Amino acid sequence: MPPEQETQVGDLPEVCLAQVIARTSPRDASRCAAVSPAFRAAADSDDVWGHFLPTRLDLDRLLLLPPPPPAPAAVAAKTSTKTTCSTDDHRKKKKKKDSYLGLCNAGALVDDGGEGCVRVWLQKATGARCYALSARRLSLPWDDGEFSWRWPPHPLSRFPDVAELVDCTCLDIYGTLPTAALTPGTPYAAYLVYGTAEGGHRGLSFPDQETTVAVGGRVVARHAVCLRPHDAEARKFRAVAAAAGAEVEVAPQPRQPRLRGDGWWEMEMGRVVMCGGDEREEGEEVVASFEVLGWYPKRGLIIEAIEFKPVR
Predict the structure, then answer these.
(1) Closest C-alpha among 193, 188, 180 to residue 277
(2) CA-to-CA distance for 309 and 108, rounded, in angstroms?
(3) Residue 188, Cβ neighbours under 10 Å: how many?
(4) Please, are residues 92 and 145 in contact by the beta-carbon 8 Å criterion?
(5) Residue 59, class by beta-carbon neighbours within 10 Å (0-12 exposed, 13-18 middle, 19+ buried)?
(6) Where residue 206 falls among pLDDT bands split at 50, 70, 90?
(7) Disulfide-capable partner of 274 in 63, 89, 182, 303 (CB 3.0 to 4.6 Å)?
(8) What is the mean pLDDT of the chain?
(9) Closest CA relative to residue 232, chosen from 214, 211, 206
(10) 78-113 in b/e burial notation, b at 16+ Cβ within 10 A?
């Protein structure tokens, strides 16, 4: 009798290999594709990459957005016969791996039906979700009236418009995101994405600025920052405060911003690590805020977004 042959991993049916690979990560799935033709077929299958892709319903649920209104029955009936075939053909042609890579590279704009919107994309290696809350989605101070801000379009922005500070004395900006929207077990950092107006700025170089990140009302990070560091302005600030007899606590080295490749400035606001889903409280939010402590005139700040991204 011929000797029995041992079954190798590569001999398993493609659907079995796909089920195993789908329980790894996008990086590991890409590595598996280089093992053998059998592994490549399984690793590139829709069964694997569909597991890494969030659906629109998932995003709406995670961001606590209302579901889109259903299409009128008459319109749906009229268009269904015309679009069913073409839509099915398009879905068959577009592999879920391509959709995943597109969501990593370009992201998707999720609108809540009002003025605020969120851009969502994925970290390519891990599939962790990333978010950019547009300026319309943030809480901005209005103590100086409705004309404190204006909303022009910006050539570098990912959103229809940005928030440009015209004039205010109290500056406190914050954005909120449900903790359920963040990928469990992943360390995140919040970033303020901003610029300054072409006509100049005022009140953004003084070293009395701070950022905080809080989860469920508990502050988990607090940092001294300066959006537009300027040594001469810092010395002037300290001298004026000392002459007025005020006690000013200024960090010796506040956090510095970073100029990004897309032309915006980025300030890290703080970091947080989310626990597993079972350990989160329902309705809990993570809040990232930026505040200038001094009450003096400020202008020229352009807010593009607050981002939540995994820490590499």
Answers:
(1) 180
(2) 15
(3) 26
(4) no
(5) middle
(6) confident
(7) 182
(8) 81
(9) 206
(10) eeeeeeeeeeeeeeeeeebbebbeebbeebeebeee
For residues 214-228, average pLDDT? 94
Distance CA 159, CA 140 (A): 17
Which 3 state secondary structure label does DSSP give 114? coil
DSSP label of 257: P
Q: How confident is the model at residue 221 (pLDDT cuts 50, 70, 90)?
A: very high
β strands within the chain, DSSP E: 108-111, 117-122, 129-134, 149-150, 163-165, 171-178, 187-196, 209-215, 218-225, 258-259, 265-273, 285-292, 301-310
Phi, psi of 170 (to 5 degrees): -105, 120
CA distance 173 to 169: 13
Residue 246 is encoded by which pair of tokens?
């005020």
Separation of alpha carbons 291 and 289, rounded Å: 7
